[in-house]
Design a protein that fits this description.
Layout lengths: L1 H34 L3 H12 L7 H14 L6 E13 L5 E6 L2 E4 L2 E3 L11 E8 L2 H7 L7 E4 L10 H6 L3 H11 L5 E5 L27 E4 L1 H13 L4 E5 L3 E15 L4 E11 L9 H21 L5 E8 L7 H12 L3 E7 L7 E7 L2 H8 L2 H4 L6 E4 L15 E7 L4 H4 L12 H21 L3
Helix pairs in contact: 1-8, 1-13, 2-8, 8-13
């Protein structure tokens, strides 16, 4: 009986010591991030010296070599590049669009969607037919022929989680041109994926799927204010016309790279933890939130560990993926090489939701594993991190297929994210230094706990 009592006393004491020590270390992680970080200066250079980083562009290549050089200063065991062939789409000269209503011409903020074809050199003019969904499009059938289809389904405003609203309407951007082409449309325009009303058109990838190239039609996004105006104008004059001119072009694939920094685990070098974001961005701005923030936060995780003198037990890789925006080639290539090398990934964490204040994580795992992770919640609550849920982790880490891997996505406050997403105002000045650093600390804290205790 006494042996049992003392064993329980020892165990309770050990657990209390571990909890106290974890609290101390995580507090130190946040202190390091808020007082001695490099992530904001890295983002400054990436955004303001290099700029937009669309896959296949010269600036994307500059970003590869800049981040590789910076990773080499952090004490990795090795820093290397993974070759990946990526699509090269070029926007060309600035797009032009206007409403032509009884000879009154009203200019409209517009941008081509990624992967779109160009109009003719003189542009195109046609009547407009407004729809709220692909299903409504299909119900109109022959009425669409020869017209520009205007997809005008807003992001649903009553979802607090704005990514749910984005997911609820992005199909019209991604597949709208493909579906409208089947009914003889000459072009499509789509309301920007944006929660607010403003004059910024938001680009994003679209796909023609498997339709013949002869059926490709131009497709573009207009700002939310422009969408409101066009919808109102169509109610007053259903016969008005819309003019669109764009000169984008799809080029041959080009060689690019994922950037990888690796710290070998001190105890379990065969077990790999990944943390990363995507290095490419759209071409309308410098991509500070999407996803410059995720790139530099992932780099900062290792800077924090270096400053603290913490050596991970498991191998830690920082992976800066190329081509998330219009092909996901980098994520797929990383997963392909991992599979061919029989690598054992136990954890992957991605930051690709902006550099706003962190609120928690979404996990791809079963309920039992989430329960274990949630037992660490009390360690994060002093830093206002409270949300641990089942959900999507990240597009780049999604293809990794190790047997027992858990995947997670950093979840910042999302209320302002889609004001900037894929638009010309996704710039360095929109990122708050302290919020960026808090996100990096939150990522480092979770990685520390996974590294210490695992999820078995």
């Amino acid at each position: 009986m006494k042996k049992t009592f003392f064993a329980l006393l020892f165990l309770n004491g050990f657990l209390l010591f571990a909890q106290t020590n974890d609290e101390k270390i995580i507090k130190e992680i946040y202190k390091s991030a808020l007082t001695n970080s490099k992530c904001y200066s890295w983002l400054d250079y990436l955004s303001n010296n290099i700029g937009s980083r669309l896959s296949g562009s010269a600036s994307a290549e500059k970003a590869v070599y800049y981040t590789k050089a910076e990773l080499e200063t952090l004490g990795f065991d090795r820093v290397f590049l993974q070759e990946v062939m990526v699509p090269k789409w070029v926007r060309g000269e600035k797009e032009v669009a206007y409403i032509l209503d009884n000879k009154i011409k009203t200019n409209i903020p517009v941008c081509a969607l990624g992967g779109s074809i160009a109009t003719s050199k003189n542009g195109l003019t046609a009547q407009v037919i407004e729809v709220k969904s692909i299903q409504e499009l299909e119900s109109l059938g022959d009425k669409i022929k020869g017209k520009i289809v205007f997809f005008n389904r807003p992001m649903q405003p009553d979802n607090v989680e704005t990514f749910v609203s984005y997911g609820g309407c992005v199909d019209q951007r991604y597949a709208g041109a493909k579906e409208a082409s089947k009914f003889g449309a000459v072009a499509t325009i789509v309301r920007s994926m944006n929660m607010r009303l403003d004059d910024f058109p938001h680009t994003g990838n679209q796909s023609y799927g498997d339709i013949p190239k002869s059926q490709y039609i131009p497709t573009a996004a207009i700002s939310t204010n422009a969408a409101e105006l066009l919808s109102k104008s169509l109610k007053n004059n259903p016969n008005l016309k819309f003019y669109l001119k764009q000169s984008c072009q799809q080029m041959d694939d080009v060689l690019s790279y994922n950037v990888v920094g690796e710290l070998k685990g001190s105890e379990h070098p065969d077990k790999i933890m990944v943390v990363g974001g995507h290095l490419d961005s759209w071409d309308l701005a410098d991509g500070s939130h999407d996803d410059g923030a995720g790139v530099v936060q992932s780099m900062e995780v290792v800077n924090i560990f270096k400053n603290m003198g913490y050596k991970p037990k498991n191998t830690l890789r920082v992976v800066l993926f190329m081509n998330e925006e219009n092909g996901l080639r980098g994520g797929k290539k990383y997963a392909e090489l991992s599979k061919s090398n029989n690598e054992n990934h136990i954890f992957a964490l991605e930051s690709d939701s902006g550099g706003f204040s962190p609120r928690g994580f979404s996990f791809e795992c079963d309920a039992a594993k989430l329960n274990k992770i949630s037992s660490w919640k009390y360690l994060f609550e002093p830093f206002l991190i409270h949300s641990f849920t089942i959900g999507h982790s990240g597009a780049d880490i999604e293809p990794i297929a190790s047997k027992n891997i858990i995947k997670a996505g950093l979840r910042p406050d999302s209320q302002r994210y889609f004001d900037h997403h894929h638009a010309a105002n996704d710039t360095f000045d929109a990122v708050n230094k302290r919020e960026l650093e808090l996100g990096a600390a939150t990522m480092a804290s979770l990685l520390y706990l996974i590294d210490q205790y695992g999820i078995e």
